[in-house]
Amino acid sequence: MAMIKNFSSVSIEGERSWVIDLEEKLTCNNASNLCDEEIQWKKPSIFRLPEFVKMIKPGVFTPKVVALGPYHHHKSDLQPLEFHKERALHNFLKRGVKSLSVYANVMMEVVKELQCSYVDLQEEWKNQNDFIKLMITDGCFMLEVLRLDENHCKHYAPSDPFFGSHAMKHKVPYMRRDMLMLENQLPILVFKKLVSIEMDVNEEDAERTITELVLRFFVPRIYYNKDDLTEFTKSIHGFHALDIYRRSQLFISTKTPQLPIRKTSSYLTNFAVMRSAARQREAGIKFKRSRSSALTTISFDSKRGILTLPEVTVDDSTEYVFLNMVALEHIHAESGSDISSYVAFMGALVDSAEDVQLLHRHGMVKNGLGSDEDFADLFNRMSEEVIVDQGGSLGVVQWEVEKYCQRGWNKCCAYLKHTYFRNPWTAISVFAATFAIFLTLVSTVVSFLQWKNV
């Protein structure tokens, strides 16, 4: 009994000890500390993805040609490009009048802020000199790639394997894909410092220059529209290249007629799974292409039964780009969920090649994958692991579309089309049977009238 009592007293003392320690920590977490914590979590914009995410889509989040930033720097299969990065830095400095030490000194002033942009930074990159060297080398390399065109290629030999005119057509597309991976980003602050020193401009003008370069390289449709370009560069402030690209996909010019703001609260508990495009057409829904290419310009006119969608172009890089944008939205609290909602919406709308063909006829699809089945499979794959807010604006559209399809007459038409008019032979049989019944009815009426007149 004595041992039991002694054991109990020890356990109680141990319990009291951790309780006291925890209470002291909770007491220390006053309002100011909570504010500091909020600021701390807002700083990062470049993240390591959890391993389970990478396992779901192997290769989609990992660079194949070039490592930018610290996360993939030491990977053996990416080392061949390190030599070419130094060549790019040399050419960058050779064209200017500022020495490397000037860039290094300016970068050192913001090194803490740059390091805080990365989550889970490895210990070796906490060495400020090594980190600054990495930022300047990778930043100058990326600037050289972003600037590649017929004129900029003249700074390099025509046969240059990464910066010549031949490489611009055959190597750059692979680098472009790597440059839009979440783990492969450089903070926009790096480019603002580099360009402001190089061009001797303030950081605001430097940021606009960087944004223009990113748009020209990744989104030429905005770059070549001067009015949209001016509006975008004045109003959009991205964290890095991927974020600028994501915002460009959602950008709506003020000249574009704005969609009415919808109240979403009443739909939160009434979320409906939307049927595919072909099934919607059977229920009487018509399709119309949006005047804007922004992915958020999806709307439904419930009075006329018209679903308006933006045109979407897909190719071999679409899955990489979309899933990295989705990953950014899922991890970064201030990024919203518009891209994720769009991917989920398209996953529901496009279920088969028939749906793709329907949208293509209405000018909503440009398919660079080779077949309509590949297009449908792409969005079905991407939407498998996407979790979105069901009460968002596209959730409202889904609810309204399904509500329209469930109307009595629309439901009846959909049943008839799906059951009896799926192919020409069935339709012909239905019309033949209907015509036979009609003739029988007419014959019966005529016979009755003849009998009555007798």
Structure description:
The protein has 3 domains: 51-199, no CATH class; 265-409, no CATH class; 424-454. Helices cover 59% and strands 4% of the residues. The chain has helices at 2-28, 31-42, 51-56, 82-95, 100-109, 111-116, 128-146, 165-170, 172-178, 188-199, 203-218, 220-223, 226-235, 241-250, 277-282, 318-331, 338-349, 353-361, 372-383, 393-405, 408-420, 424-453, and strands spanning 286-289, 299-301, 306-309, 312-314, 365-367. The protein has a 3-stranded mixed sheet, with helices on one face. The N and C termini lie far apart (118 Å). The relative contact order is 0.08. Residues 34-41 and 264-269 have low confidence and may be disordered.
In short:
The protein is mainly α and 454 residues long. 59% of the residues lie in helices and 4% in strands. The chain has three domains: 51-199, no CATH class; 265-409, no CATH class; 424-454.
Q: Tags for this entry?
A:
about 450 residues, 3 domains, 5 strands, elongated, mainly alpha
Query: How far apart, in Å, are the first and last alpha carbons?
Result: 118 Å
In the sheet with the most strands, the strands line up as 1-3-2
Number of domains: 3
For the biggest sheet, the summary is:
3 strands, mixed
- Number of E strands: 5
Q: Strand share of the residues?
A: under 5%
SS-derived structural category:
mainly alpha
* Order of helical and strand elements: HHHHHHHHHHHHHHHEEEEHHHEHHHH
The radius of gyration is 30 Å
Q: Could you tell me the mean pLDDT?
A: 83
Total helical elements: 22
- Indicate the overall shape: elongated
Helix content: 55-70%
Q: Which regions are unreliable across 5 or more consecutive residues at pLDDT < 50?
A: 34-41, 264-269
Pfam families: DUF247 (PF03140)
Keywords: Membrane, Transmembrane, Transmembrane helix
Transmembrane segments: 425-449
